[in-house]
Design goal:
Radius of gyration: 17 Å
Number of helices: 6
Order of helices and strands: EHEHEHEHEHEEH
Shape: globular
CATH topology of one domain: Rossmann fold
CATH superfamily of one domain: Formyl transferase, N-terminal domain
CATH architecture of one domain: 3-Layer(aba) Sandwich
Largest sheet: 7 strands, mixed
Distance between the termini: 13 Å
Structural class: alpha/beta
Low-confidence stretches: none
Strand order of the largest sheet: 3-2-1-4-5-6-7
Bound molecules: 5-O-phosphono-beta-D-ribofuranosylamine
Strand content: 15-25%
Mean pLDDT: 96
CATH class of one domain: Alpha Beta
């Protein structure tokens, strides 16, 4: 049997789930050797759950902050997860957790890191600052996760011109398109790197 690359998605709060759904669709439509094993949510009323249901991805509720990492580690080993994909996950993972997980963790950030990252820099906050600064460019960055917010090694970044855009909302719209373009491709590349070696 062909070896597969097992991935798990992490989100928190009332996650919208557009990246999650976009990645899952890309995997299924292209018949990639990647299995989206499960999605973790921290709130039962998160809109992303509907997206998990309609794409037949198992979702698991882990609401308890205290046991979150231990429960997650058990799931990661039970489902033999090779890669964790953060998709709107707002918590910081501890260095103990990062050391215990025998795989890689990636995140996507809606700006050109190392600019506009760090604590409190998420969602529309990022785009408002980019707009107020009259930046000529923005984009999206996929990076490995370490114990600091938005700080791990950059895997891929795509830059777009935004000088002509008239609001933070317009920037958000353009950047999200870029996120949807690059995140699945980075995951595909990591999968083939892993499968080539194993
Ligand atoms: C995205 O903008 C991503 O860059 C950030 O969280 C947001 C999640 O959006 N990490 P969605 O839930 O994927 O639509």
């Amino acid at each position: 049997m062909q070896k597969k690359f097992n991935i798990a998605f992490l989100t928190s709060g009332k996650s919208r789930g557009s990246n999650f759904e976009n990645v899952v669709k890309y995997i299924f439509e292209n018949h990639l050797p990647i299995i989206p094993k499960f999605l973790v949510v921290t709130k039962i009323d998160a809109p992303i759950i509907q997206k998990a249901k309609r794409n037949n991805v198992k979702y698991i509720l882990l609401p308890n902050k205290k046991n979150f990492e231990n429960e997650l580690l058990n799931l990661l080993s039970k489902y033999e997860i090779n890669l964790i994909v953060l998709a709107g996950f707002m918590r910081k993972l501890s260095s103990e957790f990062l050391q215990s997980f025998n795989g890689k963790i990636i995140n996507i950030h809606p700006a050109l890191l190392p600019k506009h990252g760090g604590k409190g820099m998420y969602g529309m906050r990022v785009h408002k600052i980019v707009f107020e600064n009259r930046e000529k460019f923005s984009g999206a960055t996929v990076h490995f996760v370490n114990e600091k917010y938005d700080d791990g090694k950059i895997l891929f970044q795509k830059k777009i011109s935004i000088g002509h855009l008239k609001s933070p909302e317009e920037i958000a719209h353009s950047v999200l398109k870029i996120e949807h373009e690059i995140y699945p491709k980075v995951i595909e590349k990591l999968a083939y790197q892993f499968l080539g070696k194993n």
